[in-house]
Amino acid sequence: MTQLQTQKPAFEGGTPVRDQFLIFGQPHLEEAEIDEVIGTLRSGWLSTGPKVSLFEDHFSNYIGTQHALALNSCTAALHLSMLAAGVQPGDEVITTPLTFAATANVIVHAGAKPVFADIDPVTLNIDPKEIEKKITPKTKAIIPVHLNGFPCDMEQIMALARKYHLHVIEDAAHAIEATIGGKHVGQFGDCGAFSFYVTKNLVTGEGGMVTTNNSEWAEKIQMYGLHGLNKGAWKRYSDEGFKHYQVIYPGYKYNMMDIQAAMGIHQLPRLEKYLNKRESIWKRYNEAFVDLPVILPAETPKNMRHARHLYAIRLDLDGLTVSRDQIMEALFKENIGTGIHYISLHLHQYYKETFNYQAADFPHAAKVSHQTISLPLSPHLTDQEAQDVIDAFRKVILYYKR
Ligand SMILES: *Cc1c(COP(=O)(O)O)cnc(C)c1O
């Protein structure tokens, strides 16, 4: 993501709605986290230490799991979850193709085969009926992704897991605030993986977390994330005196720094406030776009809370004279940054060539790949900026309407 304030040439529709470029997914940081980061720098304890420990405690409290293990990314959280689940070469892991690359990449990192199951065309989340069709004797685990913040149908997914003895790792990178029946996602499966990347709902720059109620998994994930050293090895240089350690497993360097946790401990208590802000922008967008040739994001069932991470609107391409990419280009000329979540992984070179996928193998995910466009939804947006997004989107869509 570039942080440049660039000025772009005018859209052929005339003067752009904005003269300053509006960055998609801008993080919202406040003075408390800036002060805490500076305090951490001055403290001399920069890497994994007391602040990581505090952030883990607060995070497990917020989600409602016994354990939360902080790592340097959600990708690391997903990778170590694969290892904790015992995923190995020869195994298959089922996931959605409509997700970020990391969700499927980690399956490959563990030496296993990613097997995609198509999405539900309304919620855009993995369809439990499609999962069941893909289960074989080699299937070891399922990675459901709560896409854009919309909770997956965990009741059905967990029923499949029990029926076929599979592990479930929830990719909750978009969904910290999402709940089902009042319970946070990330506690329905064996574990949940969260991201604190700059564009996510809670920001530590780079960072991730695993939540679990399984103490054995928690211990493994902590150990695998710090070179495979035995418990509490990060304390080896503390004032408690030098501690010898043993290498238990050839682990990874995935630990979170206190500098990152310093941001996390202040962002966490503001999640609900930021969610309310995004919720109100979400409503404004829905009301403003209802008459356009678009498909608004699906309504969430009453027992679920949507985390409002990404406002992904779908274009009714039959009602427009141009492609999604040209709409995106026009919005760029209006100085509005947008995103695409996502181009289905089965259409990406590596997955297409390695696993011999055809576009038609996952028709719903393929269709969404060409329709979807995400509009800015950061809690950093001012009322005027949200209005600029509305004005620019309406201007461009009406310009290209059939
Ligand atoms: C961002 C994201 C990840 C990876 O998160 P990092 O913290 O950047 O590693 C994984 N899955 C999904 C769905 C994401 O959006």
Descriptive labels:
402 residues, alpha/beta, Aspartate Aminotransferase, domain 1, Aspartate Aminotransferase, domain 2, 7-stranded mixed sheet, 3-stranded antiparallel sheet, 13 strands, disordered N terminus, binds pyridoxal-5'-phosphate
Q: Could you describe the 3D structure shown?
A:
The protein is α/β, with parallel strands linked by helices and 402 residues long. It has helices at 31-43, 50-63, 74-84, 101-109, 128-134, 154-164, 215-224, 258-267, 271-289, 324-333, 349-355, 363-371, 383-400; strands at 67-71, 92-95, 113-116, 139-143, 167-171, 179-180, 183-184, 191-195, 208-212, 294-295, 304-305, 311-315, 372-375. It folds into two domains: 3-24 and 271-400, Aspartate Aminotransferase, domain 1; 31-270, Aspartate Aminotransferase, domain 2, CATH 3.40.640. α1 (31-43) packs antiparallel against α8 (258-267) and α2 packs parallel to α8 (258-267). The longest helix is centred in the C-terminal third of the chain and has 19 residues, at 271-289. Pyridoxal-5'-phosphate is lined by residues 73-75, 99-100, 102-103, 145, 171, 173-174, 195, 197, 208.
**What's the architecture of the largest domain in CATH terms?**
3-Layer(aba) Sandwich
User: CATH homologous superfamily of the largest domain - what is it?
Assistant: Type I PLP-dependent aspartate aminotransferase-like (Major domain)
Count of beta strands: 13
Radius of gyration: 22 Å
Note the main sheet: 7 strands, mixed
Highest CATH level, the class of the largest domain: Alpha Beta
Distance, first to last CA? 33 Å
Estimated share of beta-strand residues: 5-15%
Secondary-structure element order, as H and E?
HHEHEHEHEHEEEEEHHHEEEHHHEH
- When the domains are counted, the total is 2
Count, helices: 13
The helix content, as a percent range, equals 25-40%
- The CATH topology of the largest domain is what? Aspartate Aminotransferase, domain 2
Unique bound compounds: pyridoxal-5'-phosphate
Shape verdict: globular
* Global structural class: alpha/beta
Low-confidence stretches: 1-6
